[in-house]
Predict the 3D structure of the following.
Amino acid sequence: MSGTELAATIVKETAERAAEFERRTGTKPCLATVLVGDDPASVTYVKMKRNRSAKAGITSRHVPLPAETTTEELVATIRELSADPAVHGILLQHPVPAHIDERAAFEAIAPEKDVDGVTMHSFAAMSFAEPGFASCTPGGIMRLLDAYGVDPRGKHAVVIGRSPILGKPAAMLLLARDATVTVCHSRTQDLPSIVRTADIVVAAVGKPEFVRGDWIKPGAVVIDAGYNEGNVGDVAYAEALAHAALITPVPGGVGPTTIALLLEQTVTAAFAAS
Ligand SMILES: Nc1nc(=O)c2c([nH]1)NC[C@@H]1CN(c3ccc(C(=O)N[C@@H](CCC(=O)O)C(=O)O)cc3)C=[N+]21
């Protein structure tokens, strides 16, 4: 499954909508990117997001904050962006330094600007299949399934990982589409035998090549949402390829669709505010 190809389609449509927004309002859609500290991987990801925004006709306002920023300072900064009519979407890059209350910081994002889908409001909307912004990586995963004709209805989906912006919302989106969902995590016993019953596997663990080929049921659909150092996924790709009907590569799978969704949702937020 090519995320690169799907992302190109989404970004092309998004760029056309961004141009239409600019014709109508005289300004471009604007995404604020907030980065606390200077973790090299995070710096790279935020740069990628801003570059792709620019190419799609979306401006970005970058807000770099020192690693020592307090929760109160971060919350205040995000509240200002939430109140600023020139800003249509807000991305707070995860993870933030350990001393910061990340949930409090996410919740300072106004729901109508939560284009990254990280607030409790967005999580509830995803869970109840109500309109709202999807968490970008899980939303991108659903778009990949749709693009490749995989209907989750009645299928056993096994999500490995329960993080707030990946595993947990992915499970909610799959459940909203009538999959039978099992969420596995670090305390799960006998993970391989659970994964062996999956029609759809979503790997969101954060451990390179953790999911092995002999865990994959023949004909299963394998989504690798891992982004480990050196562009290595959570799935042993060559092994899993031998068993899976469809599988996403890393790079070129889930990653590009994540960014495409962020841009698409930013333009949607801009139109909704205008
Ligand atoms: N609030 C928040 N929202 C996020 O969505 C979020 C985040 N924090 N923190 C970090 C993770 C990571 N992430 C990636 C996005 C795209 C690629 C991506 O496109 N990777 C390319 C490879 C890299 C390259 O092309 O250089 C690919 O898979 O093809 C990877 C990782 C979003 N994240």
Summary: The chain has a mean pLDDT of 98. Residues 45, 91-94, 116, 118, 136-137, 165, 227, 231, 250-252, 255-256, 258-259 surround 5,10-Methenyltetrahydrofolate (CB under 6 Å). The radius of gyration is 18 Å. The first helix runs from residue 3 to 25.
